[in-house]
Amino acid sequence: MQVVFFVRNALESAYNHDLLLKMQRCLRVIVVKKNKITIVGAGNVGATAAFIASQKQLAEIVLLDIVDGLAEGKALDMSQAGSVNGYDADVTGTCDWSKAAGSDIVIITSGMPRKPGMSRDDLLAKNVQIIKSVSESTANYCPDSFVIVVANPLDAMVYAAAKVTGFAKNKVMGMAGVLDSARLGCFIAKELNVSTEDIKCVLMGGHGDDMVPLVRFTTISGVPISELLSAETIDKLVKRTRNGGIEIVNLLGYSGYYAPAAGAVKMADAILKDKKELLSCCAYCDSEYKAGGYFVGSPAVLGKKGVEKIVELDLNKQEAEQFAVSLAHVKELSVKVDGIL
């Protein structure tokens, strides 16, 4: 805002009246220009993501759902919350894809959620069809957007979205590693009674029971957790992280949504603000980690070009073997996606 005031003061002291008018028009365009995020699915994850993004005033938000009135009602509720808390909530609820046109980012949360007794893989056939429909609309109305997928089974749904949209591989990604990292960080913080802000975690592989938390690269203010926790305790926390999703499902009867929504918004924020932020997420890997052209969890730099770089870590033998197992599962599901589409 200081830059805007400086320019405006300079304009007011300008001698050339015509130049003043031209510069004022340019300034008006600069100030009015806003980013736009469309969130598909007004269920728990989608609505929470819209609320978090609106609180951050990150962009103009379009909340889209096929159920008439659902997105509209939640958007209205969010706008009223903005009035309570003193910020302008720019949220539009709709069933109309045309209102998504021009979006910078599309966050896909629509899909069948997990229920007790279900694995993420159980959702594959149903959610592929949903992702296919949403991806077709995304390509039609938002051809220049970046896509962040949240639906499960995550890695396979990212693969499906990329295949249907035809978008460049750096523009399609999945929110999983941010969530899994947050879960591990939360458990470590509670175990040691330290701030989660000090904890940095790295996770790789598919978003499932065979995910690969990289303990060797997990630190608290730069101190490896192996210096602060016993191997037995670390193993316990890693196991809980791998089962973090089903733990919530068993407690609630449905999937968690606060943390997944926050993870998706964090990724959108990194892209829109060109943060060059290193995050664990589901991204396209070819020669990287010898993945062979699949979307799989890996540390990646996110900025204005989407996934700008896959960071290749020097995995030890155990880590490489665990990643290979997880990658094989991702490939298996991706092949099933090919058979459905």
Keywords:
341 residues, Rossmann fold, L-2-Hydroxyisocaproate Dehydrogenase, Chain A, domain 2, 2 domains, 11 helices
Brief write-up:
With 341 residues, the protein is of the alpha/beta class. It has 11 helices and 14 strands.
Characterize the structure shown.
The chain has 341 residues and is of the alpha/beta class. It has two domains: 36-174, Rossmann fold (3-Layer(aba) Sandwich), CATH 3.40.50; 177-340, Alpha-Beta Complex (L-2-Hydroxyisocaproate Dehydrogenase, Chain A, domain 2), CATH 3.90.110.10. It is 47% helix and 17% strand. It has eleven helices and 14 strands. It has helices at residues 2-12, 17-32, 44-55, 70-85, 124-141, 154-165, 177-192, 231-242, 244-252, 258-272, 317-340; strands at residues 36-40, 60-64, 91-94, 105-108, 146-149, 172-174, 199-200, 203-204, 212-213, 219-220, 223-224, 277-285, 294-303, 306-310. Strands 3-2-1-4-5-6 form a six-stranded parallel sheet, sandwiched between helices. It has a three-stranded antiparallel sheet with strand order 7-10-11, with helices on one face. Strand 13 (294-303) and strand 14 (306-310) form a beta hairpin. The protein starts with a helix and ends with a helix.
